[in-house]
Amino acid sequence: MSFQQLWQLRARFALSLSEMYGTEVPAYNTLVDVSTEVNRDFLKAEGADAERLGSIERVTAERHGAIRVGSPEEMSQVARVFAAFGMYPVGFYDLRDAAKSSVPVVSTAFRPIDKEELAKNPFRVFTSMLAADDPRFFDADLQKRLREFINNRTLFPQELLELADKAAANKGLEDAEADRLLEMATASFELSDDPVDYAWYKELEAISAVAADIGGVTSTHINHLTPRVLDIDDLYRRMEERGITMIDEVQGPPAWEGPDVLLRQTSFRALDEKRVFRFEDGTVGPGELRVRFGEVEQRGIALTPKGRDLYDKMVVETDYRLSSGQGSVRTEVAQQVWAENLPRTEKELALAGLGFFTYTVNQQALANAGETYSGRRLTLAELIEAEVVTAHPIVYEDFLPRSAAGIFQSNLTDKGSRDDAQQGTDYDITVMSEIVGREVADPYALYEVQQNESIALVEKQLGATITPLETRNAALT
């Protein structure tokens, strides 16, 4: 009998969910096939540059999933399940005000946080919790009935939770228990064949299709499973050529001539799926729901707080130009805004303090410089300019609220309803930490640790003290 470490359990979990979801949603298999083709062709065309943000093996194997739960208790339980796979909460996302449609959820993402663990298997799950106590969406009576419905269901059996706690505590499991953990965890995210209460589901759907998908059924399930692709625009074209209807546009940054930053996402539209309903007269019969879709992503460079501030301002500027008639196609307007404000090379992005990078000493350049840096106080910028230090981009491992909400919105048939005269319930990263039972990590802090560790190593190699780049505040031209 052998011992399976957390990363091995995580890799098996990602594969198990992928196989299960491919059976439930066959179009997902097409998406994976096309993603693999795109990555293969991109690597052939671009060579080594194609792997600047991760090896082709990692990129091709990479997935992120998305699930939804209904209460703080369910969120704390799912945190225990994911801890068994070395996946921890990172980032807080409030989707309630990120879309025009009614999306009453707050979210975090469970993923590895150590760079070595990410390199072994970066599986992550974007996990949303219904804000069932937000009066903008649910009045007092509906809040009460939602709580009762959610509290009367069990998403994760006690045996699974206990085995997950054991795996987390021991950093892995022996074979037999590992197999049982994978079996139960995968089953917890399968689409249930329990009859759906038609009247209850429709009552929630009138407010939000997302709320109905969470609080109108007796289980949770994978909403989408997302492969990573190196050229999302090429994938979009190839999927359309295969007759698969995609959402109207790619979410996130536009395609442009400079470095890829943050995250670009798109999906095929939600499909009609057969479900069984229980009607008000007590009869049971067939029906259809459209809640699950096929998402794909292209990851870019992680931005610093300064870079993210600039990104947010560019999004606002793009919205302004569109609303004031300075263009009609979002991607074209965004490309112009990006070209006016973002550096066109990784080196310039690093020098401006806009992106996170790790740094290494260029030994050949150091030898050619013929200088001794020992005992000197230097700036990182002058070392980069002199090419004594080389910047290597850190891949963005997280998510964008507006993009996530945009994907949700693009797959909804109705905008739902909300009462903005009411005061919304407060949620933030501190509240989410209390809910999941451990500190939700700040993504910026994780990237900064990687960057600072590399700078410390450069200092040691050069025997110098290095002043880092400024990574906060940005102005829009």
UniProtKB/TrEMBL annotation:
Q: Which cofactor does it need?
A: Fe(2+)
Q: Out of the domains of life, which is the source? A: Bacteria
The keyword Metal-binding appears for this protein: no
Q: Which UniProt keywords apply?
A: Dioxygenase, Iron, Oxidoreductase
Gene3D superfamilies xrefs: Uncharacterised protein PF07063, DUF1338
The EC number of this protein is 1.13.11.93
> Which top-level enzyme class is recorded in the Swiss-Prot or TrEMBL entry?
oxidoreductase
Q: What Pfam families does the record point to?
A: HGLS
UniProt-listed PANTHER family: 2-OXOADIPATE DIOXYGENASE_DECARBOXYLASE, PTHR39479
> What is the name attached to this protein's record?
2-oxoadipate dioxygenase/decarboxylase
GO terms of molecular function: dioxygenase activity
UniProt similarity note = Belongs to the 2-oxoadipate dioxygenase/decarboxylase family.
Has the keyword Transferase been applied to this entry? no
